[in-house]
Structures are given as C-alpha cells and as structure tokens.
Amino acid sequence: MDAPRFRGIFCPNVVPLDEQDRVDEGGLRAYVDWLIDRGVHGLYPNGSTGEFTRFTAEERRRIIEIVVDQVGGRVPVLAGAAEANTRETLAACEHYAKVGADAVAIVSPFYYALSPPGVHAYFDEIGRNTPIDVTLYNIPMFASPIDLETVQRLAGSHERIRAIKDSSGDVPAMMAMIDAVRPERPDFAFLTGWDACLLPMLQLGCDGGTNATSGVAPELTRALYDLAVAGRFDEARVVQGRVGRVFDALFGEADFPEGFRLGVRARGVEVGPGRTPRLQADRDADPARITRLRDLLALEGLA
After folding, report:
1. Residue 63 to residues 68, 132, 288: CA-CA distances in angstroms?
2. Which of 49, 183, 188, 255 supports an S-S bond with 12, CB 3.0-4.6 Å?
3. How far apart are CA 158 and CA 130, in angstroms?
4. How distant, in Å, are the alpha carbons of 27, 36, 66 from that of 268?
C-alpha cells in the first residue's frame, strides 16, 4: 500500500473537562498544541487514557472532530473507534474517515470474553467493510486478547488492517509477532502501549508506541524514541529509567487513568478531574498529589 507505516510516539491524550463535566473544547485544542510543540509524533484520542468508555458516542465523535481540526495535518491522528458492537464500530470508522482521521484503533471486544475465533470474526468483518485503515488494539487486562494466529490471519487477508497496538507488555510475544507478520506485510506497524518496556520493544523492531506517559512528559518519550532509532542505546537506557519512574508514579498516584490526568495538571495544563466516580476525600487530596507529581517531574528535568 502507498501509505507509510506508522512510526513514533502517538499520544493517548486525556480530554479536558469543564466545571460542568463537559468536553472543554478550548482546553482540548490548547492541550493538542502543547503536545505537538513538545514532540509527539501523533495523537491517539479516544484511547484508554482518554477514558473513551466514559463518554457518549456523540462526545467521542466530537472529540475526534476537535483533535483532527486542531492538528491541521501537522501530525497523524489515530482515532479510537471502539464501540460495543460491529455495526456501531463501523459507523464510527465511517465518521472518522469523513472528518479526516488518518486511521482508527479498535480494541478487541470487551466485557463479554470471546474465543480467538470470535475475535477473528469481529475484526474480519471490520476489515472487509472499513473505509479507513485499522490498528488492532490488544489490551488483555480489559478486553479479549488478540493472539498471534489471529493477527497473522487478519494481516494476511485485509490490507486495511495495517498495525497493532499491544498493551500487554509481553516482549517475547511481540518479538514472535514481528517475526511472523513482517516478512509478509512490511507495511504493517507494531506499536507498544506499555511504557515500562518502550526501549526493549523498539530494540526488537517495534515502530513506536502509544504511551500514556507521553501525555505528561512528551519530551521524555520523544527523546527515548530518537535515541533508540539512532542506536544510542546506552543513553536511551538512562531515559527509559526516567520514563519508568514517571510512569510508575502516575500509575500509583490514583486509579488509572486519573493519575495521568493529575500529571498533566502538574505540568501546568489544566484539564480538570476525569469522569471517574471519586470520593470527595480523593478530590480534596488532589492538590497534594499534584504537588508530589510536580516535584517528581522537576527531578526528571520537566518544569
């Protein structure tokens, strides 16, 4: 296919909310610019870090429209298009193709556990009908896993299925997947969603990542990617350590993905609290949490 393989760090951005718990369009536009100015290679709205399940279908569509418009072609937009059934997912694909997204990411069916043949049937129907390029999204902690055989079959039969985002953190499984798929599909991209192993994933052949840390510390994830691509692995290992410390702190500060939202606020970008049901005591603790994260980020060279 003519389209280049996805490469680099695609940010699964949080969505700013206003005091009435509505999507803050101005805040989202400003945050998109902030991320691009600090080096992300692409945007990935409506991902897990973006709390896609907590927005309505109408809100999800509006989020993509805002991001695509604000990006203005500066970087690719990988739009999260996962819905609860095949028909609605394909409707989202059609809408995101129409508004100018570069591709969509679709999580394996969630809530109801499916066997590998069931997962294949789901993506097979999408592959036969999608008007836009598709990235498979494997996140076994939340959804039915996408196994190697399924990836091979889909990559071998659908040109529109052009990448996988894997958030399992399973390095040997990723290596086996690249070895099995890339010889037949050199245009197929492999992206890791697990920040703690970004460097080893890049070393074994991944094209980049969709990393939640990039929404808080885009400078670090970009530096790590650039060093790895340049083969400067000793320096990259130092940066991987910094990414890992930030990642662990953000994960540990609050229920996912609220810690990452707090991290964005610690960087001085006001995005408000997420839609997670939270005790008032948790909300009252936010200022202290933001201060702790601001101090940690400062130690890692991030003002």
Report:
1. 9, 18, 30
2. 49
3. 10
4. 12, 16, 21
Q: Which superfamily, per CATH, for 8-232? A: Aldolase class I (3.20.20.70)
Cβ–Cβ < 8 Å for 170, 218: no
How would residue 1 be classed by pLDDT, with cut points 50, 70 and 90?
A: very low
On whether the CB atoms of residues 104 and 96 are closer than 8 A, the answer is: yes
Q: Are strands 78-80 and 42-43 parallel, antiparallel or unpaired?
A: unpaired
For 100: left if phi > 0, alpha if psi spans -120 to 50, otherwise beta; the answer is: left
Where would I find the beta strands (DSSP E) of the chain?
8-11, 42-43, 78-80, 103-107, 134-138, 161-166, 189-192, 208-209
Q: Please give the structure tokens belonging to residue 169.
A: 């953190």
pLDDT tens-place string over residues 189-220: 999 999 999 999 999 999 999 999 999 999 99
Owner of token pair 């409506």: 46
Contact partners, residue 245, CB within 8 Å, separation at least 6: 296, 300
**Amino acid letter, residue 72:** G
Q: Which amino acid is at 102?
A: D
Of 141, 142, 138, the C-alpha closest to 166 is 138
Cis peptide before 257 (omega within 30 of 0): yes
